[in-house]
Amino acid sequence: MSASRKKDPCKANACRIQACLNENNYQEDKCADVLEAMRQCCLKWHKVSLCCSGIDLEKPYLTEASKGAGKS
């Protein structure tokens, strides 16, 4: 599978991160669920996704304390 011929499998997640950060004045804690979704995508696709280059695969973005934060 060539990354240059196929759509990046994590691009949609990367776009969601940018939108979330923009909407929340770049406060990462408000976008933990979106960041974690990106990390999960990158765990699966990091070898072919250019969008994963800056994602720390070892750092979970959601903790037990933040899993319900900001949800109504």
UniProtKB/TrEMBL annotation:
Note whether Cytoplasm occurs among the keywords: no
Keywords on record:
Disulfide bond, Mitochondrion
SUPFAM superfamilies documented for this protein: Cysteine alpha-hairpin motif
Q: Which Gene3D superfamilies match?
A: CytochromE C oxidase copper chaperone
Q: Which PROSITE patterns match?
A: CHCH (PS51808)
**Location(s) in or outside the cell:** Mitochondrion
- The intrachain disulfides are 10-41, 20-31, 42-52
- One CC-aspect GO term: mitochondrial intermembrane space
Q: Which domain of life is it from?
A: Eukaryota
| Protein family membership | Belongs to the CMC4 family.
| The protein, known as | Cx9C motif-containing protein 4 isoform X2
Which gene produces this protein?
LOC26533072
